[in-house]
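Dear support,

Our group has been running a series of protein-ligand predictions, and this particular one with zinc ion is the one our PI (initials K.S.) wants archived with full inputs and outputs. We had some confusion internally about which version of the output was final, so please treat the block below as the authoritative record. The input we submitted was:
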Amino acid sequence: MPLVHLSDMIGHASRHNYAVGAFGVNNLHFLEGIMQAAENRRAPVVLNLIAPHFENQTFDILMPAVTSAAQCATVPVAINFDHGTDIASAERAIRAGCNGVMVDTSALPFSDNLWQTRDIVAMAHACGVTVEGELGYVPGIEGENARNHPGELAYTSAAEAAGFVERTQVDCLAVSIGTVHGRMKGSPKLDFARLAKIREATSVPLVIHGGTGLTDDQFRRLIANGIAKINDYTALSDAANRCIRENVSADPKGGHSGLLAGVRDVVRNEVERCIHLWGCSGRAAEVLAQCRPWHGAEHVVLFNVPATISENEISSILREGKKSLQAIPGVRNISTSRSIQPDGEYRYCLSISLASKSAIEVFQDHPAQQRFENSDLWPRVTEHLTLDLEES
Ligand SMILES: [Zn+2]
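Confirmed final output from the archive:
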């Protein structure tokens, strides 16, 4: 299981003066291309799910594939939810399997950004999940022309960054020093002096969003000045778009698969280029050895009820219980089952799948869980057995 704690992965990059890539995943072609590149280069990698890219149920449908790709990998992987704007979106991401969440409330005034980020940090940390905050404003949306989203760039100030990190307890901080999301008009001018000051004033690794269009030298200087994670989507999307356009001109009447042929390969090539440039190649083994593995957990209750309680009654209690417990932060899934052997030691099983070992504590202490157990379950149960398990 090569999922590792995102904060450990970024911390390793920060201590060893390289940057880990967080590559935007919005479909299976990108997912495969990114994973192949990380495997080819023996590099740690962050699979980045960018909130504004997902409508309807796409995120929930894609996440099982992302989790499965991470679990099948031989290189360390973390799964990050990018640009969540409130605690509900962060909770949903953790429920779906992300072990890092980025909070983007940077368009708010400083104090509102600080309070909202702090609330999300408290919830996410209780579940063991890494949090990235953002201070200053990087305009635009990944993958689109920055001029379509002309919000004013607001630079991060070193003094504010120090207070923000200390008071929110974020694990890493996205800074605004001259990049924009998506494609930039003209060449970006980065404020390296500002970055050096932010690094000096803060104790956490720093992150850059909007790296598309930067020169190799600019990337090297960013890393030399404390950038330990770089978010990249637009360059991958541009490579994929070029590939599709070439497919169309080669065969204007080609079918859907023909249009997408080669997309995975060009994404892989671009990711490999970045991984190499950012100093990430060949780091997989040391990251796996030095970073905590990420394991999901399970809270299982086996129980019996007296014969006076009907199957219908117990089903309805468990159904209602599932509804209220499902909303507890860190709960990923709840299943109920019944023993196949009618005279087995325990007749019923309630199994709660959680984001991590620490999420078990959040679950146990939550008022909804205590209400369910104390008012609905225990008064009806004759005997029970509870088990807390960690994935191995
Ligand atoms: Zn971003």
